[in-house]
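User: Structure please.
Assistant: Input sequence and predicted structure:
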Amino acid sequence: MFAPFKPQASVYSNIHVETAVQNADGHRLTAMLLDGAIGAIGVAINALERGDIAAKCKAVSKAAGIVDEGLRGALNREQGGELAKTLDDLYACVLVRLTTANARNDAALLRECSQLLAPMRDAWNAIKPQRMAA
């Protein structure tokens, strides 16, 4: 009954996400990237469990892109010191596991990736950026 409106809903959703990104500061963008990666991994697990390999591959690819281009790409390795190196190593580990999970159709490895990122997301969300008084 409502199938003809699905593309419009998708457009609305994309506009909503684009607006949120445009209005977000660096802290919020990182939170959104972590949420996006974990969400995409969840989609991949669900797709794998229902046997939809194409959807699983698409979701794993999305998660890997977020981790590699978004999270790893945002690291300031020059100023970030040991923390940036540690995060880079974590993201590299997640990427290897995502790739392996995708090739093996391994839901347990996908869950492990989510479990590696979830504490990061939770800790990041617990940190509130300090606003400087004018």
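Residues 8-17 have pLDDT under 50 and may be disordered.
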